[in-house]
Amino acid sequence: MGVDPVTEKPVPVYPIHKTWIKEYLVSLPLVFVCLFLAFKVMMFYFAVEAATVQYCKQNPSFMNGALVHLPGVGYALVVIAISHFYRIFADKLNNWENHRTQSSHEGHLIIKLVMFEFVNNFMSIFYVAFYIQDMSMLKWQIGTLLVVNQIVDNIQEVFLPLWASRKSNEEISLVKKQDLTEDSLKIIRESKLPVYENTYFDYLELYIQFGHVFLFASVFPFAPILALINNLVEIRSDSFKLCYAFQRPHQRSADGINGGWM
C-alpha cells in the first residue's frame, strides 16, 4: 500500500522494482531479439536480391529487367508487415510492465516503437551506404522504401476506413426500418466504428518519413517532394479518418505533443 499524493489516502501501489525487473530483464532482451530477427530478414533480402541480379544478368530480357526490382518492393512490404506485428507486441509488452502513470506508460511505449522502427526502416539503407557502398542501389533502396511506405499508409488510412464506413452504413440500413430518428441512427452508426485510441502511429509515420527526408535527401533529392505530396494527401486522409472512419475521439488536454516525441 502507498499514499496518494493528492488525497493522502492509502491506495494499492504496484511495486516499482517489479516494473523495473520486467523492463530490463524481460522487455529489453525481447526488443533486442526482435531487432535481431529484423536484421536476419534484411540479410535474407540482400541474399535474394544478389541471386536475382545474377540471374537477370545471365538471362537478359525485358521481364527480367523488371524482375530485378521485385525483391526491393517485397522487402519494403515485409518491413511494413514486421512493423505492424511489432507494434501489437510492443503494446502488449508495455501493458504487461504495468507502469504507474499514463505518462510513463506512453513514454516507454514510444521508446520501444521508435527504437525498433528506426532500425527496421533504416538499417538496410545504412547497410547499402556504408557496407556495400553502391550509390545506384542506395538511391533505389531509399526510393522504394519511401514510396511503398507512403502508398501502403494511404491505403490503410483511406481505403480501409472507407470500406469500414460502407460496411457500417450497410448495417445501419437494416435498422432504418425501425422507428428511429436521424440522430439515433447517427449514434448507432458511430458506435459501430472502431475506437481511435491514440496518435502514436500517426506520429510514428511522420517520424519515419522525416528520417527519410532528413537523413537521405542528399542522396535521393526527390524525397522531400514525395514527402510534400504525401503530406498534402495525408491532411485529407486523416481528416476523413477522424470524421468518418472512427468514433469521435474524446477530448484530452495536453501542453504539447504527448509522450517522448519531443
Automatic annotation (TrEMBL):
The lineage of its organism: Eukaryota, Metazoa, Ecdysozoa, Arthropoda, Chelicerata. Residues 4-257 form the Anoctamin transmembrane domain. It comes from Leptotrombidium deliense. Belongs to the anoctamin family. GO terms for cellular component: plasma membrane. Keywords: Membrane, Transmembrane, Transmembrane helix. It is a multi-pass membrane protein. PANTHER family: ANOCTAMIN (PTHR12308:SF74). It is found in: Membrane. One of its GO terms (molecular function) is chloride channel activity. This is Anoctamin. The chain crosses the membrane at residues 24-48, 68-89, 109-132, 206-229. It comes from the Eukaryota.
